[in-house]
Amino acid sequence: MEIILKKNVDKLGYKDDIVEVKPGYALNFLIPQGYGTIATKSTKKSHAEVLRQRSHKEVKIKEEAQATATKIEGTSIKIGAKVGENGRIFGSVNTIQLSEMLKAEGIDIDRRSLKIVEEPIKEVGTYTGVANLHKEVSAEFKFEVIEE
What we know:
- The chain is an alpha+beta fold.
- The chain is built from three helices and nine strands; from the N terminus they run E-E-H-E-H-E-E-H-E-E-E-E.
């Protein structure tokens, strides 16, 4: 069954992609949750028109994403955490904290577009994160978890 995605779906596709999925996945999850619509002839035709009109804006959005990616790769982020014995953290570091620290550096990124490569983080050290800024642009950066 072909579906036109309305939002980015992890491990499936990006917004406005037409993807092939099993009917149960589409009818029981994607469509009721608002992630997609069924791709019929008429919806494909209107979707193609929308993409054609939006194509010139996409270039500008991609350039902005690339500028943000270069800015992210040049920053050094330090996240403070309460540490117990043996250097272990109480709790863990997550994308919410990472997003807040990037915002403090002047880079506003939604936490849902951030991924931590070595999850879960339970110890002090240096780790790698990835920011998916556009479907063709992603930035890898290092951040350090330090004792507070």
